C-alpha cells in the first residue's frame, strides 16, 4: 500500500518534512500504530478513507484532512467501495524511508511479521492491538495485512 515518497534535505540539516502518497485498495487497513518521532497530516485525494486517531474517528472524502500527532495511536482504512488515495505530510522527514524498505520487503509477497516488527522498531513505530479494532474491521469489511 505504499505509493511515492520524497523529502529534501535542508541547507542546515535534515528536511523538515516529507510527502508520501498512499493508495488504498478496497478493504485496505493500515494496522494501528503510534509514531514516536514524527507527526502526520493526511489529506484524502480520492475516495473515502476512514481515520481513527486517539478517540477521534472520521470518514473523509476528497479534500478532507486530519492530523495525527506523535504519541497517538492511529489507523487508516478504505471506507468506501472503490480505490482511494491520500497524501501524507510527515514531520520531521525520515519516515518516508520506512515505506521504501517495506515496499522492498513486500515485493515478493507478504513479509514475515517478525521482519515488519523489526523494521517498525528501527523507525520508532509501535504497533498496537486496541480493543476497538475487531469492531472496525467488521463494520467496514476490512482485510488486515498478514500478521496485523
Overview of the molecule:
With 148 residues, the chain is of the alpha+beta class. The chain has a single domain, classed as Sandwich (Jelly Rolls). The chain is built from three helices and ten strands. The protein has a five-stranded antiparallel β-sheet, with helices on one face. It has a five-stranded antiparallel β-sheet with strand order 6-5-8-3-10, with helices on both faces. Strand 5 and strand 6 form a beta hairpin. Helix 1 runs antiparallel to helix 2. The protein starts with a strand and ends in an 8-residue tail after the last helix.
Helix and strand string, N-terminal first?
EEEEEEEEEHHEH
User: Which segments are poorly predicted (pLDDT under 50) over 5 or more consecutive residues?
Assistant: 1-10
CATH topology: Jelly Rolls
Structural class computed from helices and strand pairing = alpha+beta
Strand arrangement, major sheet: 1-2-9-4-7
CATH architecture: Sandwich
CATH superfamily: Jelly Rolls
Q: Main β-sheet: number of strands, strand sense, barrel status? A: 5 strands, antiparallel
The tally of helices reads 3
Q: What amount of the residues lies in strands?
A: 35-45%
> How many domains is the backbone divided into?
1
What best-fitting shape do the alpha-carbon axes yield? globular
**How many strands?**
10
Mean pLDDT: 91
Alpha-carbon Rg, integer:
15 Å
**In CATH's first tier, which class applies?**
Mainly Beta
Binned, the helix content reads 10-25%
